[in-house]
Write a structure and sequence with these properties.
The protein is an all-alpha fold. 76% of the residues lie in helices and 0% in strands. The longest helix has 32 residues, at 14-45.
Length: 406
């Protein structure tokens, strides 16, 4: 049974909603550059897929170690601090180029990762609160759609710049310098704006368990949050690994060159962005867990088809997966936070540790380098999407049980 369509937000929250949504574009851009940077370093520095995976590992390790500290600053100050770290990390590509080593770039990427986790830890839960609870998932999907816009902008603009047909391609310092300046200017804007503080009432459960830390409460008394946490990790492994492996896969199959592959990846991310916008619209009238189940099933079938190595059919299936996975991150994120009240900030910081799943690309690289089979590494995202399917199935089952009990 569909639900009545409601507005995403109210007039009172419209300006904060628009400002915070703009941040989603920024980190989408920053994360998508990695998928192009990965192949660029393979070409420019003559390193293997496994070695280049350190680009993802280093950046997302910053998420892992800084997620909980970022949870202490889910407010305007957290956003400003995150933007500042992000901007400084981007500008550090300048001395990184002077140093001339792969590891100098990795150091800059680590700082960028630390900045991004502050942004995401603050913005994701904040958006879910800027309106009616019933539209929280749709609202986060809408904001996350601009994450997709940032991603496709990065793969196209930076991809065309780096893979321009010359021997060494463009200088990676240029796009990062521009990005760093823009981000620092946005930090100045946010320093002049007051965002409303979202507060929750203390629940009876929190009073009963006040002697336990919030993280202990989450793990002991909220099993669906724990399931959601591991499901989000599984999704991040799948999504980031596929994006990072995409250019290696299609060029290894000799279907296209690096330049064309970056354009095709941009098109895939455009499908991803459209999928989020459409999914956000659909979930204003369809229950989020039902939408998640259908999309997870679609991803399992799509990646299973890629693994069968069916040529063009596998390529089409890989593109289709970008549509199916589009709503997964914001939907899993908001469903995992459902009903947590004052535990939301702590829960959000734990959820933002999950981009460490980007290290799963290294496992895909190891499988590809050791077996020489380009389709075999997709077993990693296949298993990840299957876990998402189980989570959606369990949520739907619990909904049915609750309805019957009523």
């Amino acid at each position: 049974m569909s639900k009545k369509r409601e507005k995403l937000t109210t007039k009172a929250y419209l300006l904060p909603f628009l400002l915070v949504t703009s941040l989603f574009f920024l980190w989408g851009f920053a994360r998508a550059i990695l998928d192009v940077l990965n192949k660029h370093f393979q070409n420019a520095l003559d390193i293997s897929i496994t070695q280049s995976a350190l680009v993802q590992v280093t950046t997302y390790f910053g998420y892992f170690i800084m997620a909980i500290p970022a949870g202490w600053f889910i407010n305007r100050h957290g956003v400003i601090f995150g933007l500042t770290l992000f901007g400084i990390g981007a500008l550090l590509f300048i001395p990184g180029a002077w140093a001339g080593t792969f590891y100098a770039y990795l150091g800059a990427l680590f700082i960028i990762g630390c900045g991004l986790v502050f942004l995401e830890t603050s913005a994701n839960p904040y958006v879910t609160e800027l309106g009616a609870p019933a539209t929280a998932t749709a609202r986060l999907n809408f904001s996350q759609s601009f994450n997709g816009l940032g991603s496709l902008s990065a793969t196209f603009l930076v991809g065309q710049f780096l893979f321009n047909g010359t021997d060494n391609g463009g200088n990676i310092v240029v796009p990062y310098t521009v990005l760093g300046i823009v981000v620092l200017l946005i930090a100045v804007v946010f320093s002049r704006v007051n965002l409303p503080e979202i507060k929750h009432k203390v629940t009876e459960e929190e009073i009963e368990n006040e002697k336990e830390t919030r993280i202990v409460q989450l793990f002991r008394h909220h099993p669906m949050f724990v399931f959601g946490l591991f499901t989000l990790l599984a999704y991040e492994v799948s999504e980031i690994s596929i994006n990072s492996y995409f250019i290696n896969y299609v060029t290894g199959k000799h279907w296209m060159n690096d330049n064309t592959a970056s354009i095709v990846l941009t098109c895939c991310l455009a499908f991803f962005m459209v999928g989020r916008f459409v999914g956000s619209w659909i979930m204003r009238s369809v229950k989020a867990e039902h939408m998640l189940f259908v999309c997870a099933a679609g991803s399992v079938v799509s990646i299973g088809t890629v693994m069968l190595n069916l040529g063009r059919v596998s390529m089409i299936a890989l593109v289709c997966n970008y549509v199916f996975e589009a709503i997964m991150f914001p939907t899993i994120f908001s469903l995992a936070l459902r009903g947590l009240g004052n535990l939301t900030k702590s829960a959000s910081s734990l959820l933002m540790m999950t981009p460490i799943g980007g290290c799963g690309f290294m496992l895909m690289g190891l499988i590809a380098d050791s077996t020489g089979m380009l389709s075999m590494p997709f077993i990693i995202p296949f298993l990840g999407y299957f876990i998402v399917l189980l989570f959606a199935s369990e949520l739907s089952r619990k909904k049915r049980v609750n309805v019957l009990c009523l």
